[in-house]
Amino acid sequence: MTKPERRTIAERALAGYAGAVADELDLPRDAVLAEVSDTAAVYLPLARRCVRYPGRDLMLVWSGRRGWSVALESTPRRPLEVIAYFGDEERFPQPHAVASFVEAALDHDGVTRAPEFPVADLEETVERRLGRFAGQDLPESGFPASRDSIAL
Questions:
Q1: So which domain of life are we looking at (predicted)?
Q2: In terms of pLDDT, which residue wins out, 110 or 95?
């Protein structure tokens, strides 16, 4: 498989995974922005507000290095302000677990320490772990029977 084909599969897999998270949060899939390049990232605007920041819009973001986090919407002049991280136990948690994390974060409960996941071979990791979401029959892709995480 050539590099461009792999990138396309990884991008589709990450977008499909993020779409499944959007479904769990009752958000439209067309609001999902997912990218795989030299890094990988997901952006999803949240419809709800946080009790700690009632006047601010929120977003759910995922990065290959930090995993999922809930943050205040930012501007080019304002740095990203994360209010909660999913944690360091899993880079690709099940979509329902991400939705539960968002609900808890919006109600005051969240991990504030940033996890640090390795980013070497991130594109291949996305492809292997989330390939099912791209509609591809890749080895070792998709979710295992466990409801809480996707094993590497």
A1: Bacteria
A2: 95
Q: Which residue has the higher pLDDT, 58 or 76?
A: 58
DSSP 47: S
Q: Residue 51 gets which letter from DSSP?
A: T
Burial class of 118 by CB neighbour count within 10 A (0 to 12, 13 to 18, 19+): exposed
Q: How many angstroms separate the CA atoms of 86 and 97, rounded?
A: 9
Degrees, nearest 5: CA angle 125-91-100? 140
Residues ≥6 apart with Cβ < 8 Å to 99: 21, 24, 25
The sheet carrying 67-72 orders its strands as 33-36, 40-45, 58-63, 67-72, 81-85
How many CB atoms within 10 Å of residue 87? Answer: 16
